[in-house]
């Protein structure tokens, strides 16, 4: 009997211990789950990540702008070569941290060596290949598309969720959405001006579905090639369609760097444009209604800054309280943490804030 009683007490204690261990396990599981988040990325995929992410590899400089806007540049452990080259914008990265030439040519061995929790890559990169190569090593792949103006809210909410910067993301969205709303309200019912938009190379324009199309649309422009099926058009067609305004962004071979091209370089770009055969017959050229922008100033905040410059250029009288140069300076100083440089547009836009 004595042995039976001892055995019963032992089994009872063992059972209680097992329950306690079980409760402890459940608590650990709950704590682990509380440190994870499931996000829907810009490719529509559900991805479960540690929350917040503290170590990330990044492909595409515009994704870096988003990350820098949220103040989490110190969490980046690897970058593509285009980001690495622009030391003045992002600085501090070494060759050992370069994860590939660009989003379409990644060095998976180097990514694995750097031990990121996440690879951030746009949807025009090799994200499917990256997922298959990196998932066995516990590296998650998140698609972030920094290109589309009409999706900037979901872009920044995704980034905010990834890095645990949801409040900062909402503040960013509110700041820029207020200005987009102002534009839409004040251009309601205003006849649209016809616009030819050209990106870097001669004859490269924007069409529905392209990265720049919504920027021109949000700015109130009537794109003369909205019916085109290819972004590369014959420049003689610009003469035939005779736009009210011409927007030229960047230059073939020029990188989208933070340093301003300056007035002399922008004037040279403009002169090369108006010297094209037959372009003296275009209404925009005759009226000197041409806006030249650097690639950097156009691309800021998912091209919202570019939108503001274009719309202010097209409709200055309808938008008296819109000051794109002020917004650009604020973006550079507060969100990109760099020194403001004028000289990204021709004509130049004035600063109203001292």
Note down, in words, how this protein is organized.
The chain has 354 residues and is an alpha/beta fold. Helix content is 45%, strand content 14%. It is built from 14 helices and 13 strands. Strands 10-9-11-12-13 form a 5-stranded mixed sheet, with helices on both faces. The protein has a 4-stranded parallel sheet with strand order 4-3-7-8, with helices on both faces. Strands 1-2 form a two-stranded antiparallel ribbon. Helix 9 links the parallel strand 9 and strand 10. Helix 7 packs antiparallel against helix 8 and helix 8 packs parallel to helix 13. The protein is globular and about 60 Å long.
Write the layout of secondary structure elements.
Elements: H1 2-34, E1 36-40, E2 46-50, E3 56-58, H2 61-69, E4 76-79, H3 81-85, H4 87-90, E5 100-102, E6 105-106, H5 108-114, E7 118-121, H6 127-134, E8 140-143, H7 152-163, H8 166-187, E9 193-199, H9 213-218, E10 221-223, H10 236-241, E11 245-249, H11 263-274, H12 283-286, E12 290-293, H13 295-314, H14 324-335, E13 345-346
Parallel strand pairs: 3-4, 3-7, 7-8, 9-10, 9-11, 11-12
Antiparallel strand pairs: 1-2, 5-6, 12-13
Helix pairs in contact: 7-8, 8-13, 13-14
């Amino acid at each position: 009997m004595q042995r039976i009683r001892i055995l019963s007490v032992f089994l009872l204690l063992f059972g209680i211990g097992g329950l306690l261990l079980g409760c402890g396990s459940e608590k650990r599981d709950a704590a682990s789950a509380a440190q994870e988040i499931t996000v829907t990325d810009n490719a529509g995929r559900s991805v479960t990540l540690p929350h917040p992410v503290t170590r990330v590899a990044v492909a595409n400089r515009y994704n870096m702008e988003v990350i820098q806007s949220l103040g989490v540049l110190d969490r980046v452990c690897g970058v593509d070569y285009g980001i690495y080259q622009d030391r003045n914008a992002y600085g501090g990265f070494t060759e050992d941290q370069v994860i590939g030439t660009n989003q379409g040519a990644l060095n998976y061995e180097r990514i694995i060596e750097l031990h990121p929790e996440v690879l951030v890559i746009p949807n025009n990169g090799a994200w499917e290949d990256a997922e298959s190569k990196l998932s066995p090593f516990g590296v998650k792949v998140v698609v972030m598309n920094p290109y589309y103006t009409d999706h900037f809210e979901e872009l920044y909410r995704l980034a905010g969720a990834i890095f645990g910067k949801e409040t900062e993301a909402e503040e960013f969205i509110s700041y820029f959405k207020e200005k987009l709303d102002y534009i839409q309200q004040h251009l309601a019912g205003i006849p649209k001006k016809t616009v030819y938009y050209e990106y870097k190379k001669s004859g490269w324009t924007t069409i529905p579905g392209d990265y720049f199309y919504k920027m021109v649309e949000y700015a109130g422009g009537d794109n003369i090639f909205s019916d085109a099926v290819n972004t590369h058009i014959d420049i003689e067609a610009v003469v035939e369609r005779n736009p009210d305004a011409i927007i030229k962004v960047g230059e073939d071979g020029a990188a989208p760097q933070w340093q301003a091209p300056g007035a002399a370089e922008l004037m040279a770009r403009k002169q090369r444009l108006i010297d094209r055969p037959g372009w003296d017959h275009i209404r925009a050229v005759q009226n000197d209604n041409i806006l030249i922008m650097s690639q950097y100033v156009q691309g800021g905040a998912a091209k919202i800054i570019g939108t503001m410059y274009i719309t202010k250029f097209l409709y200055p009288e309808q938008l008296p309280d819109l000051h794109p140069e002020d917004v650009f300076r604020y973006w550079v100083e507060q969100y990109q943490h760099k020194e403001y440089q004028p000289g990204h547009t021709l004509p130049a836009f004035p600063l109203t804030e001292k």
